[in-house]
Specification:
The complex is a heterotrimer. By secondary structure, chain A is mostly helical. Helix content of chain A is about 75%, strand content about 0%. Chain A is globular. Chain B is an all-alpha fold. The chains are: A mainly alpha, B mainly alpha, C alpha+beta. Chains in contact: A-B, A-C, B-C.
């Protein structure tokens, strides 16, 4: 329990760091923060966004006070989920833009990543169990080679070959154009259909890492005494593989899951852009390219929080699966 | 970004003293081991090949690979242009081989920087313990929770210059934490070994122990860290360039793919400006991944692939170990 | 054994779940792939499907004043809100719209508009002169609502009054022959009963727009797609002919190209590289590209106050040294025809009538490096080695800056800088990473650059005014976009001619003034016109016809250009046909 409280405390600290980094980023660049931001804008943008100076002042927490005052105001606003107004979608609040797009990203990365994890650890487990077998000598290298390519290359390949040429999958967006998002069957099937190719791309890009990871750990576990004992007892091979060796071998990769999740969230940006998938990754890129700093920074904070939440879930899972932690 | 995380468990650390002889040349032991291992041998061959191509690139490419040559635009691969030309007539082959230089250099430097920072911080923290350890640990964990690519995307948005050194610094800053944690774990296991305790007892200063005793014994893991950050930096940098956040006038694989995308070349039926840099990237990363796997297997003999005996592979495949004998 | 039963059962359970998942996957995978909604390959399009490029996820903002840069608001002007008159690109005859007729009086200082009767807002209330007066004078309520320059310096409007429910009298301080084509053309009419109550028009998102236009409701709106449906009680019976307009999101030029290639989208305004093979060839019967060349030229703009750019001979030499044909064919893929030294050949060809002027304009733009060199040496330039030295003794250098992503301009600049190097000028292409680093300097010509024209397009008056008039002059170092005088040039003789042009409504007199101005232009050459900047438009006749084409031309084919777009929205008709 104490260990748990420690982890929780750490996560709160991490969120605070993310918020502070966001606050400092514009100020660390040379020159006055607002002038530095305004310089990036064209007169056309300035004309189209009459309130932009106020927006930036809000973003930076005030503008005419001392840095500590600005900081306190900034934290206060954030605690009310007020991230300011999005300049590229003026005058929509940033929180609304993020709120619309975040669920799609969570769905995509959640499903894809869990799939990659399951497939990867499964293959790795089998490969380690049967050294030199088909899985080890053929499947593993195939996964390794595929995952060696950058995520955006795999996404583009999927788009061109499977989507455009073969026509097996829809090539963009999160759902059909004539569907209204909501809890209706049409939307759910449409969303599911449109997520298949992006999920496939993410799985292709990340499974290789899991395979190798699990295989390595599994190999070490196999040589442990208790595995030998289980064999000696006459237990069936598959049972030993999964319930004895596998169950213990999965712990380190599970820990790695949380760290890998952060990188998967990054890979999300590429996938969403290639497939025009309206998630936070795509919004982040268009925000940065459109000099919409309030939106870009808010997304960064939100993504950090997502990673932290994933870490938290992992910790809970760890706690449940690893009895050693319960006695700590 | 595929990532291979070598085992976090206790690795037996090998630093064999014996070398091998290739005629008159004597290779240090660890190279010998790497060459003997099939995975790392393949990987090393690939990486060395790419490095060689990068080195001789000025000889086999046109002088300015990004130059337009509008009369030769959109040509498919031929003997004159091995990898074809882009929409503006630039020779894709030249762009790929010259681009190898920037990509490799950036990956190596980012890897080196991140590894140095990770090693120094991680190992010192592990050895010294106490408050230093807590602080470094905290720092590492915080960096690990901030997602790298979004941070890089936002940082690139703010940066006015996007030159190579800026990219190296930013990528290293974002990637060091991962390795620091692993190296710290490793150093912790070494901390209580006899030779360290002896050095401590004999009054050696901390920095000498860290640099003189701990690091040399972790060389395989530090090398592994370097290789890992190298290829992750490659993937991340090409990713940023693909998004249009890199230096668009530079010659590099990611930039070539970016232009291919901007000009919709594949949709025009021209696959080569997209395919060849991607293959180059994938090949290099694969080579590095193989080297990494090889380092792992060398350090951990249990990982080495055995050939199935007895009734042969098919039997093993179908029935598991119980049948194999 | 009990244990093995349990594990077997568990295995079976896992197998069943996995099997179901696989079935679900296969089930949905077997559904037709390109089911992107109403725009599927086989079903006919009910709505015209349009797209742009680089659109962020859609948010609702239909404010016609502020949201034209957003995907949701890019054509609310035209679809929901209507103009008083429509003067199409190229100074075409004004098409009456909400103003069904008009007349000048009071020494050409008062313009009386007679409005259409029976026009209703989509909330049922009638559109009257009060709404028109309100819309014209809304600049007093908020600066962003000013469409006619009422609140700016140089405002020529004295008063705007309603006379009865269907007449509006606009009184100017001095006569202005350009008023209708250049100024009134920009105005759209909004309902006074709604907008006068809006406290902050800048942040008002107008999520339930009330307009008089051919489309009056938003029947669908998601983050990636929206539909405007037709106004059943539109004041022009039978119009619009299409039932709805649909706009879908495209993340990039690449994804937009995929959409039009597959026929899912009918109409775009993106630049498509190699359009003949990338798009038209995919379905030659239906897919068309209309890259309209009724536009001002793209020219090389320099700071004319800076030495040696200030020397006319230097600018004339530049014009002779640049190979416009190569630039047009290789740099601009052949889409952008080269122009003569005046540059009006695309938009106002009928205004250059004098044979001698035409010949001189052509000669000044013919590729002739030898003549260029001679022009320079005659003006006091010398050559040292191969390098050009100006009369003051310094080597001449001219680097052209361009945004690195605009690959056609980059290619054209490569050719241009090579041409300049051939006559001894040290010249290279300087790449700028993005709009933010290029535009402020380009608009003030702090560096040489290719640039479009910003003058009004009602008649060539706008072109000459922006580039020659003292009244439009912007000093060096300042942003030239308010008047279009980015090169910081002025000519007093031209100014007096332009002042005369402004106050005369007689077309013949205007033509005479134009010819004189053309001669002055060729004497001064403030900029170096190079090629037409086409208006990109790709369209498909698979489900709709009656498009704006070369043969059937009524204005700018781009659906975000107001007020030309309202002509397209009301004239495009349903029904596929082969051929344009």
């Amino acid at each position: 329990m104490r260990w748990f409280a420690r982890r929780l405390g750490f996560y709160v600290f991490a969120i605070w760091v993310a918020l502070t980094v966001n606050f400092l980023l514009p100020r660390l660049m040379p020159g006055s923060p607002i002038a530095g931001l305004l310089e990036h804008l064209s007169p056309a943008q300035l004309a189209a966004n009459p309130g932009i100076v106020q927006t930036y002042e809000a973003l930076l927490g005030g503008g005419h006070h001392s840095i500590w005052q600005d900081y306190v105001t900034y934290l206060h606003r954030i605690s009310h989920f007020n991230f300011g107004l999005s300049t590229s979608n003026y005058p929509t609040p940033v929180s609304e833009v993020v709120g619309r797009t975040l669920p799609y990203s969570i769905f995509l990365v959640g499903v894809a990543f869990v799939l990659a994890f399951l497939i990867g650890t499964g293959v790795g487990m089998v490969a380690a169990w049967r050294r030199g077998g088909f899985t080890d000598s053929v499947v593993v290298p195939v996964f390794m080679t595929v995952s060696a390519f950058p995520a955006f290359v795999l996404a583009l390949l999927g788009l061109y070959v499977l989507g455009l040429k073969a026509g097996w999958f829809p090539i963009q967006h999160a759902y059909d154009n004539d569907v209204i998002p909501g809890w209706n069957w049409r939307f759910v099937t449409s969303a599911f259909r449109h997520s298949q190719l992006p999920i496939l791309a993410i799985v292709a890009a990340y499974t290789g890492g899991w395979v190798l990871n699990m295989r390595t750990v599994m190999v070490n576990t196999i040589s442990e005494d208790y595995v030998g004992m289980a064999h000696a007892k006459g237990l069936r091979d598959r049972r030993v593989m999964t319930r004895y060796a596998g169950r213990n071998a999965i712990l380190p990769p599970l820990n790695g899951f949380a760290a890998q999740f952060a990188s998967a969230v990054g890979g999300l940006v590429f996938i969403e852009i290639v497939f025009s998938y309206p998630g936070v990754g795509y919004t982040l890129q268009s925000a940065v390219l459109g000099n919409d700093y309030p939106l870009a920074q808010a997304i960064l904070v939100v993504l950090s929080v997502c990673v932290i939440v994933a870490n938290l879930i992992m910790d809970v899972l760890n706690f449940v699966l690893d009895p050693r932690l319960r006695t700590a | 970004m595929a990532q291979l995380e070598p085992t976090a468990l206790d690795l037996p650390l090998l630093s064999p003293k014996r070398g091998i002889r290739l005629g008159r040349i004597r290779l240090p032991g660890w190279i010998a081991l790497l060459l003997r291992n099939r995975k790392s041998r393949t990987g090393l061959l690939i990486v060395v090949f790419v490095i060689l191509v990068a080195i001789i690139s000025p000889l086999i490419s046109v002088a300015h690979p990004n130059d337009f040559n509008l009369l030769a635009a959109r040509q498919s691969p031929s003997w004159h242009h091995l990898f074809g030309t882009t929409d503006q007539g630039s020779d894709v082959f030249s762009q790929v081989v010259v681009g190898a230089r920037r990509s490799l250099l950036l990956g190596a430097l980012a890897g080196a920087l991140a590894t140095v920072v990770a090693a120094v911080l991680g190992i010192t923290a592990a050895y010294v313990g106490g408050i230093v350890d807590e602080v470094v640990n905290l720092l590492t964990n915080v960096f690990l929770t901030i997602p790298a690519i979004p941070l890089l995307v936002v940082a690139s948005g703010y940066l006015k210059t996007r030159g190579m050194w800026t990219m190296i610094a930013v990528i290293a800053l974002v990637l060091w934490a991962f390795e620091a944690r692993i190296l710290r774990a490793q150093a912790l296991t070494l901390k209580s070994r006899d030779f360290i305790l002896a050095a401590k007892a004999s009054g050696e200063p901390t920095w000498r122990i860290v640099f003189g005793e701990l690091m040399p014994n972790m060389i395989s893991r530090i090398a592994a860290a370097f290789v890992l950050v190298f290829y992750v930096a490659l993937l991340v940098d090409s990713g940023l360039e693909f998004l249009g956040l890199g230096d668009q006038s530079a010659t590099s694989w990611g930039v070539t793919i970016y232009w291919a995308q901007v000009n919709s070349t594949v949709l025009q039926g021209e696959w080569w400006p997209f395919m060849f840099p991607s293959l180059a990237l994938g090949l290099t990363v694969l080579g590095l991944v193989l080297v990494l796997a090889g380092i792992d297997e060398v350090s951990n003999p249990r990982l080495r692939t055995e050939r199935a005996e007895g009734r042969g592979r098919l039997a093993t495949l179908l029935g598991g170990k119980a049948f194999a004998r | 054994m009990r244990r093995s039963f349990r594990s077997t059962r568990r295995l079976v359970a896992v197998g069943v779940v996995a099997g179901l998942a696989v079935l679900a996957l296969i089930g949905t995978a077997s559904a037709p792939a390109a089911t992107d909604g109403s725009a599927s390959l086989t079903a006919a399009h009910k709505c015209i499907v349009m797209t742009g490029s680089g659109d962020p996820a859609f948010v609702k903002n239909f404010n016609p004043y502020t949201a034209t840069g957003l995907p949701s608001g890019s054509f609310v002007q035209g679809a929901f809100y209507e103009p008083l008159v429509v003067v199409g690109e190229g100074g075409l005859k004004p098409v009456p719209w909400l103003a069904k007729s008009w007349a000048w009086s009071n020494g050409n200082k008062t313009l009386t508009l007679h409005l259409q009767k029976g026009v209703k807002w989509s909330d049922g209330k009638p559109l009257t002169s009060l709404d028109v007066v309100y819309s014209l004078t809304a600049g007093h309520q908020s600066a962003i609502m000013d469409r006619i320059g009422l609140t700016g310096t140089g405002n020529n409007v004295q008063s705007i009054r309603a006379h009865g429910p269907y007449n509006v009298a606009i009184t100017l301080k001095t006569p202005d022959s350009q008023f209708i084509a250049a100024i009134l053309n920009r105005q759209f009419v909004v309902p006074q009963h709604i907008w006068s109550k809006v406290s902050d028009p800048a942040t008002f998102t107008n999520s339930n727009p009330v307009g008089s236009g051919p489309f009056d409701k938003i029947s669908r709106f998601t983050t990636q797609d929206y539909v405007f449906s037709k106004n059943p009680s539109y004041w022009q019976p039978g119009l619009p002919k299409v039932p709805c307009l649909e706009y879908v999101q495209a993340a990039s030029n690449d994804s937009a190209l995929a959409l039009i290639q597959s026929g899912q989208v009918d109409w775009t305004h993106n630049f498509v590289p190699n359009v003949a093979s990338a798009y038209v060839a995919k379905d030659p019967k239906h897919f068309h590209a209309f890259y309209a060349t009724t536009a001002y030229p793209i020219s090389l703009h320099l700071d004319d106050t800076q030495y040696p750019f200030s020397l006319v001979a230097f600018r004339k030499a530049l014009s002779l040294a640049i190979d416009r044909n190569s630039v047009s064919k290789l740099g601009e893929y052949g889409y952008a025809p080269p122009v003569d030294a005046i540059g009006l050949g695309g938009l106002f060809p009928g205004w250059v009538t004098d044979a001698a002027v035409k010949a001189q304009a052509k000669a000044m733009a013919t590729y002739n490096p030898a003549a260029a060199k001679k022009t320079l040496t005659d003006a006091g330039f010398t050559y040292k080695g191969g390098n050009l030295i100006d009369p003051k003794g310094n080597a001449v250098s001219l680097d052209i800056h361009v945004i690195s992503g605009w690959s056609d301009w980059v290619a054209s600049n490569q050719i241009i800088t090579k041409n300049l190097s051939d006559i001894g000028i040290s010249s290279k292409v300087a790449l700028e990473p993005d709009w933010g680093s290029w535009q402020p300097n380009a608009y003030a010509t702090k560096f040489p650059t290719l640039l479009w024209e910003m003058g009004s397009q009602g008649s060539p008056y706008g072109y000459f005014y922006a580039n020659l008039s003292q009244n439009a002059f912007i000093p060096a170092g300042q942003d030239g976009s308010p008047t279009g005088n980015t090169e910081h040039f002025q000519d007093p003789q031209a100014t007096s001619l332009l002042n005369q042009w402004k106050v005369t409504l007689d077309p013949e007199k205007q033509q005479q003034l134009a010819t004189q101005l053309e001669k002055i232009w060729l004497n001064d050459l403030p900029i170096v016109p190079l090629f037409i900047g086409p208006r990109w438009s790709t369209y498909s006749t698979k489900y709709f016809h009656c498009w704006d084409t070369q043969k059937n031309f009524w204005g700018d084919p781009i659906f975000t250009t107001f007020p030309d777009n309202i002509l397209s929205f009301t004239r495009i008709c349903p029904g596929g046909q082969a051929g344009a």
